[in-house]
Design a protein that fits this description.
Strand order of the largest sheet of chain A: 1-2
Strand content of chain A: under 5%
Structural class of chain A: mainly alpha
Radius of gyration of chain A: 18 Å
Largest sheet of chain A: 2 strands, antiparallel
Number of helices of chain B: 5
Strand order of the largest sheet of chain B: 2-1-5-3-4
Order of helices and strands of chain A: HHHHEEEEHHHHH
Radius of gyration of chain B: 15 Å
Oligomer: heterodimer
Distance between the termini of chain A: 34 Å
Helix content of chain B: 25-40%
Helix content of chain A: 25-40%
Number of strands of chain A: 4
């Protein structure tokens, strides 16, 4: 039985952990109810990027992942030379411009694709620091400026699909407006990357 | 319901259907083109494959409004006289067993060969892996695709 001040403190701390989610380390600012500080911002951003809705199309290999479990995509689907799949097995052969209205069918958004093989932008098995450095490097991000990167993260139709994934798919740990705010604040703060142990 | 005009096998067709109707059911029920088959309804088997602007689209999950301005080709429109190299090769290799999946197989094979006129076995496996054959005709499908490539290289002659 938990009692006294210690018990109340433990319950409050436990509530914070539940809100933040396992492994989410946004720093003291979150505990003060202010949202993540810019310096911690990319850790929060990375928690979203590591969610199934993002990481499934940013895999370590050349096969996209599926579902919340991150299984290899069925039917031998592959990235292909442009990130669009292979002949007769292109992403858009099954993924339409919007979610199909029946359960257990392919989700859809405009321009469904993976990053091209030259710049695969891997999120799977990467630390927040590794993702941050990769994402900011024009040689690895498709020559995007920071402004273009912010636009991709906050306004790209395929990225926005992550918050409208259809039934049976979990949402990222931050809401889309909250994610967009954290991204903008991180960029305005000079886009700092977290430490390697973050 | 919505009136939607489609380009199917070179003909303009106008249908009156719900906007989210899968293309498959427009082809089969509204236009009477029964060569395209229903298999799984989830883009898992490839039986419903048709060409949309030259791509091997699974018509069971393609909402008809998405293809209103596209060029659609079904198995009936691949050729008027079975003269497409893939159709010739399929006949020469006697590929089908029950035949149910074969229109989808042929449509995918035609897309593969349009992009890659001389595919390796691995190319064929990679591009045909979305088309399932319950009868297991895969070895004959692979042989037929190689034969179709040869037919194409010879200018259409077997």
């Amino acid at each position: 039985m938990i009692g006294g001040d210690f018990g109340r403190t433990a319950l409050v701390a436990g509530t914070v952990v539940l809100i933040a989610g396992p492994g989410l380390r946004m720093g003291d600012s979150l505990l003060r109810g202010e949202g993540p500080a810019p310096a911690d911002g990319f850790v929060a951003i990375a928690e979203v990027l590591k969610s199934p809705r993002c990481v499934n199309c940013h895999p370590a290999g050349d096969v996209p992942l599926q579902d919340d479990e991150g299984r290899l995509h069925t039917m031998r689907v592959q990235r292909g030379p442009e990130g669009l799949g292979l002949p007769a097995m292109r992403c858009s052969n099954c993924h339409g411009r919007r979610n199909f209205p029946a359960p257990n069918t392919p989700p859809g958004a405009p321009n469904w694709h993976l990053p091209p093989p030259e710049t695969p932008m891997v999120f799977q098995n990467k630390t927040p620091a590794e993702i941050c450095r990769q994402m900011k490097d024009p040689a690895q991000n498709g020559n995007k400026t920071l402004e273009e990167l912010v636009h991709h993260l906050t306004a790209d139709s395929l990225v926005l699909w992550g918050w409208d994934p259809g039934p049976g798919r979990t949402l990222p740990p931050l809401s889309q407006p909250e994610f967009a705010r954290v991204v903008r604040e991180w960029a305005e703060a000079g886009a700092p990357c977290p430490d390697d142990d973050a | 319901m919505a009136r939607i005009t489609l380009d199917v096998n070179g003909k303009r067709e106008t249908v009156d259907v719900a906007p989210d109707t899968p293309l498959l059911w427009v082809l089969r029920d509204s236009l009477g083109l029964m060569g395209t088959k229903f298999g799984c309804g989830m883009a898992l088997c490839g039986a419903c494959t048709v060409h949309v602007d030259g791509e091997a689209v699974r018509s069971c999950v393609k909402q008809v409004t998405e293809v209103a301005d596209k060029r659609i080709v079904t198995i009936e429109g691949l050729s008027s006289d079975l003269s497409h190299p893939v159709q010739k090769a399929w006949l020469e290799e006697d590929v089908p067993q029950c035949g149910y999946c074969q229109s989808g197989q042929i449509m995918s094979a035609a897309v593969l060969l349009a992009a890659n006129p001389n595919p390796t076995d691995e190319d064929i496996d990679n591009s045909m892996s979305g088309n399932i054959c319950r009868c297991g005709t895969y070895p004959r499908i692979r042989r037929a695709i190689h034969r179709a490539a040869t037919i194409m290289a010879n200018g259409g002659a077997s």
